[in-house]
């Protein structure tokens, strides 16, 4: 990735909107200068001075990366090159370190400060104390002008992430058997992702399983994980790999036991809906038009109420990025935008189905980055 070019482009935009930007360790910072993110924790872990963990930059000066000692040393970020790193000692005053940096940046009176949307409220509170006359704007909104349309180098990385995801799924299929629990399924997916080179899942691996004897339950993982999956159940996969900072998102449906006529019908409808959605991802079309094209297939077959969500979302270094493939989003497609196309039919007491691939907007229709496993896989 050409980080120097990205930085120069951002600084040109920053000059129009802000005098200073602060980007915590986040997607925005990794996109801009390559500072990597790590596997997230469920609970918060704090180091002294954690609020200054990130980079400071202006329209004309190179970024300064400030890090607590624990982050720099144990996180391995002190190995980064090409970045001016300032490390806060465990007993040092973070406010003094930041005040000295702000003084060196020659900010005007009443500066405009751009904060990433992922910045801590604590960071904003401390900055307000140091710059009481500042006006805050969104740095993420500024960066989004660069991140929405992907270059061919970024698309190539995402294609590799898709290859890792499909390789993991291929090996998951080899392990499937009747009677395994939903926890077994999830654990196998996460293991295979890492085995094939992913840092881990790009989001929490999820399943939306249903059948006449296996009701669909949302949001109660500790209950659903324990359930054995037997014949007569549709297993709906939703997972993706992390690769070089990019996030993949992938979905397929597997039949445990021979599929019934109803399950086959539901599956075929979802696949037809996806084909319509992919065809609609062409330059000049709109997000809401693509959603409508895919949704019409399912509505015409009488399952409209079971298509419970938008057709898809932008994707890249975050799993969900704007714009969104949904009614009311009139964003116009440009070549290089990337979206998930993920229609589904989810029913609570009978069979469900879903499919999901990352698709690139092209002049004559979308280019899916994963194309395997199009026929219904059966576990017997």
CATH class label of the largest domain? Alpha Beta
Largest sheet: 6 strands, mixed
Classification by helices and strands: alpha+beta
Strands across the major sheet, in which order? 4-3-2-1-5-6
CATH superfamily of the largest domain: Creatinase/methionine aminopeptidase superfamily
What is the residue-mean pLDDT, rounded to a whole number? 96
Q: Helix-strand pattern, N to C?
A: HEHEEHEHEHEHHHEHEEEEHHEEEEEEEE
**Residues in β-strands, percent:** 15-25%
How many beta strands in the DSSP annotation? 19
Tell me the count of domains: 2
What is the tally of helical segments? 11
Q: Any idea what the shape is?
A: globular
Q: From the alpha-carbon coordinates, what is the Rg to the nearest angstrom?
A: 23 Å
Task: List low-pLDDT spans.
Answer: none
What fold name stands as the CATH topology of the largest domain? Creatine Amidinohydrolase
CA-CA gap between termini: 45 Å
Q: Tell me what the CATH architecture of the largest domain is.
A: Alpha-Beta Complex
